Amino acid sequence: LPLAFPLPSSWHQMVALGQKLVVFGGMGHKETVSDAIGLVDLTIAEDGGAFAFSAAASMLELGDSRPEGRFSHCMIPCPPPAPSGDPDAAEEVNTYTPHAALIFGGTTADRMLEDCWLVELSTADAAETDSG
User: Among positive and negative, which fits the CA dihedral 92, 95, 5, 12?
Assistant: First the structure.
């Protein structure tokens, strides 16, 4: 599915938050390190037994408090889903929707990073977490 997405990069990370995909960082054109946060809004609808899929891409605008550009980092949905251990609880797991992404570490090409950031999707806010 072709998207006009303004993030040509490699070494980025992407996580699914419900029907949204959050893309952060990476190495862009001419080896520039990106601090861009992209958002892909997925729409999946059932139509007579078949699934229709569409997507729209945009940039997530954050304020002054934002993670430094990086690549080769980790990003996970937050809070992560808790394992239920009950095979009959599959429906409960399928209705779980994380609302934020946790970004950790990576490199700027000049130095290794050991910071940790929580990016809230609903408020388009980022905050550095206490690492001590």
Answer: negative
Report CA torsion sign: 84, 86, 91, 94. positive
Angstrom distance (rounded) from CA 79 to CA 103? 12
Reply yes or no on whether the pLDDT at 132 is more than 60: no
Is residue 2 over pLDDT 70?
Answer: no
**pTM of the entire predicted model:** 0.70
**Per residue in 102-131, pLDDT tens?**
899 999 989 999 999 988 876 555 666 665
| Cα-only R_g, the chain | 16
What does residue 88 show for φ and ψ, rounded to 5 degrees? Answer: -85, -5
DSSP state of 19: T
Give the three-state DSSP class for 87: helix
Given a contact cutoff of 8 angstroms between Cβ atoms, the answer to whether 111 and 91 are in contact is: no
Identify the H or E element spanning 93. Answer: helix 90-94
Cα(102)–Cα(23) distance, integer angstroms: 12
Nearest 5°: CA angle at 42, between 38 and 45?
Answer: 175
Q: Could you count the other beta carbons within 10 Å of the beta carbon of residue 48? A: 5
